[in-house]
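Researcher: Last one for today. Full complex below.
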Amino acid sequence: MADCIFCKIIARQVPSEIIYEDDLTVAFKDVNPQAPTHLLIVPKKHIAGLSACGADDTALLGHMQMVAVAVAEKAGVASGYRLVTNNGRAAGQSVDHLHYHLLGGRCMQWPPG
Ligand code: 5GP
Ligand code: ZN
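Model: Here's the assembly. Have a good evening.
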């Protein structure tokens, strides 16, 4: 997608601190961190969000979660972290390219705001 910021990050057209990459995913630091560790895990394939996924994306979604486990370990927050995706404007989604936020390094509140 030509005007998608995350597609541009994946293509290295926009700089970011990429901390993990494989054939299907990229993980990079959020530019506006909400916790000491705040990473974004995104598929290389442009998908607008979770509800835009189809049955053929099931394996990709599982893979993204396993990438989250690996990058949490790498970031030193394996003992406690939150993995969240905001789906839709009402949930706070601002970038229409599927992503999981991985937040750690501080105590989390529940329920989230
Ligand atoms: P959302 O609001 O869609 O759930 O999350 C989008 C996230 O992307 C936000 O936390 C925001 O800070 C992050 N973000 C937006 N633009 C950029 C960017 O250009 N670079 C990086 N690294 N993160 C970004
Ligand atoms: Zn995209």
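The domain at 5-104 is CATH 3.30.428.10 (HIT family, subunit A). The chain has one domain: 5-104.
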